[in-house]
Amino acid sequence: MAFNINVNGNPHSVDVDADTPLLWVLRDVLGMTGTKFGCGMALCGACTVHIDGIATRSCITTVDSLGESKVTTIEAIGTTAAGAAIQKAWLDHEVVQCGYCQSGQIMSASALLASNPHPTDADIDDAMSGNICRCGTYVRIREAIKLAAQ
Ligand code: FES
Ligand code: FES
């Protein structure tokens, strides 16, 4: 079945089953591999994208649930003010280790900063608690979010 979806400002028609997760539409149909698969059960945050600006787990978001919503992925987050500030802070603080979790981390952090320009430590912990990093970059992530907020 064909679904019309909007990703990073571009319309796409994708012919997939209605219950296909957005993650696989992005990666396998549209070839946008910046969004990562980790657990497939909304437990790790690796697959985080924005849907109408809200950080959302694409592994459990079915394509038929999107409707007119606007999807933003890591490929375009740098075109937003919050996303650009987060990406710069990530580089300044050398946050990344292996990198696998980091697109999801950046998407969650960008959504936080867009909705809350001056987050407290508690706000950061609350917004980022669902994004797991096996390399343990949590301290640098927190510091980078604070830098971006400046
Ligand atoms: S792959 Fe979606 S939360 Fe882990
Ligand atoms: S940087 Fe390696 S899992 Fe987070």
Descriptors for this entry?
binds FE2/S2 (inorganic) cluster; 150 residues; DNA polymerase, domain 1; 2 domains; Ubiquitin-like (UB roll); 5 strands; alpha+beta; 5-stranded mixed β-sheet
Task: Describe the structure in your own words.
This protein has 150 residues and is of the alpha+beta class. It folds into two domains: 2-72, Beta-grasp domain (Ubiquitin-like (UB roll)); 77-149, DNA polymerase, domain 1 (Orthogonal Bundle), CATH 1.10.150. It has five helices and five strands. Strands 2-1-5-3-4 form a five-stranded mixed beta sheet, with helices on both faces. Helix 2 (81-92) crosses helix 5. The longest helix has 14 residues, at 102-115. The model has no long low-confidence stretch (mean pLDDT 98). The chain binds FE2/S2 (inorganic) cluster (FES) (2 copies).
Short summary:
This protein is α+β, with helices and mostly antiparallel strands and 150 residues long. The chain is built from 5 helices and 5 strands.
| CATH architecture level-2 label of the largest domain | Orthogonal Bundle
CATH class of the largest domain: Mainly Alpha
Number of strands: 5
Q: Distance between termini?
A: 46 Å
Q: Give the ligands present.
A: FE2/S2 (inorganic) cluster
Mean pLDDT: 98
Strand order of the largest sheet: 2-1-5-3-4
Identify low-pLDDT runs.
none
| Major sheet attributes | 5 strands, mixed
Helix content: 25-40%
How much of the residues is beta strand, in percent?
A: 15-25%
Radius of gyration: 15 Å
Morphology call: globular
- For the record, the count of structural domains works out to 2
What class do helices, strands and sheet pairing give? alpha+beta
What CATH calls the topology of the largest domain is DNA polymerase, domain 1
The ordered string of helix (H) and strand (E) elements is: EEHEEEHHHH
Number of helices: 5
CATH superfamily of the largest domain: [2Fe-2S]-binding domain
